[in-house]
Amino acid sequence: MARGIGGLxxxxxxxxxxxxxxxxxxxxxxxxxELGLPYEHHLVGGAYGGLDDPQYRVLNPNGxxxxxxxxxxxxxxSHATLRYLAGAxxxxxxxxxxxxxxxxxxxxxxxxxxxFQPGWIAVFWLLVRTPPEQHDAKAIAAAHARTVxxxxxxxxxxxxxxxxxxxRLSYADIAAGVALYRWFTMDIDRPAMPGIENWYRRxxxxxxxRRVVMVSYAELVGRLAF
Length: 226
What we know:
Helices cover 50% and strands 8% of the residues. The chain has 226 residues and is of the alpha+beta class. The protein is globular, with a radius of gyration of 17 Å. The two termini are 20 Å apart.
């Protein structure tokens, strides 16, 4: 599938591989849309298969998504794609020129990978992707507790910032914010966190977030594998 801004078919060197229902793919999609970049999107993974195709493994030896191509450059790992797109195309938007400001962006981006994402992804897998008859209430509760603890750290950060790493959007918001639609739509207890809730409202005002993150994940419900 080839698509670009507003659903138009456009031709450019940017090519993204991965299913649109993948949270990690949504990070790259969100950055592409946020930056207004035309791109081709090839659906692979999940119901679409293709991850074990030898040609795809040349692009991404892990057999995972997303994979981003820009001409003769291939980048995999979602946060690496965010940093690349921000540095190459978002110098006046998602990127921070000041190394001190960029350090804060990278700090929260890495925190998302090491602390926040493992918890919320576990909740999603255990509660949504696992068939109800296989639910493990104890494991769900433990993953939920880890996620809430991480969110409280982030919530405190919003006491003096509108966005994760400052008062305007950066790729740190994309890395962490992709989780919010699922967090706020899953059937779980959500302790009040005004900072997180206000941040979610701000992100919902962005067309790119609505277009690629606030999408149905029905195809994943009760499916541990495709």
